[in-house]
Write a structure and sequence with these properties.
Blueprint (H helix, E strand, L loop, with lengths): L1 E7 L2 E3 L9 E3 L23 E6 L1 H9 L5 H4 L13 H7 L6 E7 L6 E5 L7 H9 L9 E3 L2 E7 L29 H19 L14 H9 L26 H11 L7 H19 L3 E2 L2 E2 H5 L9 H4 L1 H4 L3 H29 L19 H10 L4 H5 L6 H14 L9
Helix pairs in contact: 1-3, 1-4, 7-8, 8-12
This protein binds flavin-adenine dinucleotide.
The site of flavin-adenine dinucleotide has 10 residues, from strand 1 and helix 5.
Length: 419
């Protein structure tokens, strides 16, 4: 096994914060469900978050305590997430930044503790209290529990199969942190697949549920971690999916219910719902591509970003008779169809250009339009061609596309690229 590290911020007593001095964060609005099964109703109760800022006093306090940080003094040696650095990391690595945002998140509805998101740390308590008390709104804040850092063991991807089976075993399946991921949703997603694989194994059919990256974010995650060597705790970002406009919450059932039914993972009644949804989706697509309003095809109207797809029911009696959720999905499919096809085309192009020579690139960190984590990975791995670059663990599809564009810009016109 190998080791990663992670940290957590101090927790504050909710009643000790001056809420007049911090900014309230407004929620996004509409609630979404992945499933149309129904059941529990949405609650109207909301836990409100606030933001404040860590300025020069907090940064100085972090720098002065850095010698006492196990993350820095070597007593914790595992690699941590670059996308979620500790506060002392931010203070040391980004000296140009004069301020860092801090999110005050209540820990549960009506809870007495508030999480100081963005301030994960393993600094001594004296530095932590100085950092916290320097934040606007936290001048008299009481720390209920101190930030700390931990190391944990995980199995490298080469030990993990696409069905999440641990290499060398018949019926041990892995999920969550032990796969090198970090995060509640990542653990839950992997748990679903490991559970299905374990059940399949008991029934003599282990490969029955293997989600693909083209159809789900869980598939993207498994393709990223199984067989590859992670360089840091893995978090699933939507930018890791090449066709992310297809992987939407509104079409989760349209994408995956058929897989659930064919894998034996569905509940009674799901298959009938699936057939009904398929019929309605087909009807909605037909209507959108044949009926007009004000002389314009409904499908064309859907492609205009400002168009409110919720108004379609008022424009067509046939659409009004369908499930509004299905009409919404059919309308968004029309809206994003061009983007989804372009993304598919770009991935085909990247595949076609896999032999493009990268020896002309001396410094990958200078290529615009790709994430800094990927620039670091490229600089370290120094791939010989685009095919090798695309295979570097953790390289996001969007970064592979960005690299191709950047490299093609570097090559003088008329030069053979090797593709
Ligand atoms: C300090 C810290 C802060 C974090 N903050 C966040 C955050 O804000 N947001 C986020 O998304 N993620 C966060 N994470 C990551 C997230 O908590 C983990 O990635 C996730 O909980 C992993 O889930 P898991 O099921 O793999 O493991 P765990 O949640 O650790 O569950 C493993 C369970 O197995 C039990 N167990 C262990 N050994 C045995 C045994 N022999 N027999 C029976 N039971 C056993 C343990 O008691 C535990 O309950 C944080 C992690 C840490 C350490």
């Amino acid at each position: 096994m190998e080791r990663f590290k992670t940290g957590t911020p101090p927790r504050l007593l909710a009643g000790s914060i001056d809420y007049d001095a911090v900014e309230q964060q407004v929620e996004e609005g509409a609630c979404w469900r992945f499933s149309s099964r129904g059941g529990a109703r949405f609650s109207d109760r909301r836990a409100v978050c606030f933001t404040t800022r860590a300025g020069s006093r907090a940064i100085d306090a972090a720098r002065s305590g850095i010698d006492g940080s196990p993350l820095f003094d070597g007593s914790i040696g595992g690699r941590g997430p670059r996308y979620c650095p500790s506060f002392e990391d931010k203070a040391a690595r980004f000296p140009d930044r004069l301020e860092h945002p801090v999110f005050l998140e209540p820990m549960g509805m009506g809870g007495r503790l508030v999480y100081a998101g963005g301030m994960s740390t393993s600094l001594p308590r004296s530095a932590q209290i100085e950092m916290i008390r320097s934040l606007p709104g936290c001048g008299r804040a009481v720390v209920a529990s101190w930030g700390y850092a931990v190391e944990y063991g995980y199995f490298p991807g080469e030990c993990i199969g696409r069905d999440l089976r641990l290499a060398g075993t018949d019926n041990v399946f892995l999920a969550g942190q032990v796969c090198g991921t970090s995060g509640y949703e990542e653990a839950a997603g992997l748990g679903l697949v490991a559970g299905a694989s374990a059940a399949g194994s008991a029934a003599g059919d282990v490969g029955r549920f293997r989600p693909q990256g083209s159809e789900s974010f869980i598939g993207v995650m498994i393709e990223d971690i199984a067989g590859s060597n992670l360089e840091e705790p893995y978090r699933l970002f939507s930018s890791r999916a090449s066709n992310r406009l297809h992987l939407r919450q509104d079409n989760a059932e349209a994408r995956l219910l058929a897989r659930a039914v064919s894998s034996g993972l569905s509940r009674p009644g799901d298959e009938a719902r699936l057939r009904m949804m398929e019929r309605q989706l087909e009807e909605a697509r037909t209507v959108l591509n044949t009926e007009r309003a004000g002389g314009r095809l409904l499908a064309d109207m859907c492609r205009v970003t400002e168009f409110d797809v919720g108004s379609l029911g008022a424009m067509s009696g046939r659409l009004a008779a369908l499930d509004p959720g299905v009409v919404f999905t059919a309308a968004l499919d029309e809206r994003y169809m061009g983007h989804v096809r372009r993304a598919e085309g770009r991935m085909r192009e990247v595949e076609r250009m896999s032999s493009v020579d990268l020896s002309c690139v001396e410094d990958f960190s200078g290529i615009d339009g790709i994430s800094w984590e990927s620039r670091e990975r490229l600089q370290k791995a120094r791939p010989a061609n685009m095919g090798e670059a695309a295979l570097i663990p953790g390289m996001r599809p969007s970064d592979v596309e960005g690299l191709l564009i950047g490299v093609l810009r570097m090559v003088p016109r008329g030069t053979k690229t090797g593709a």
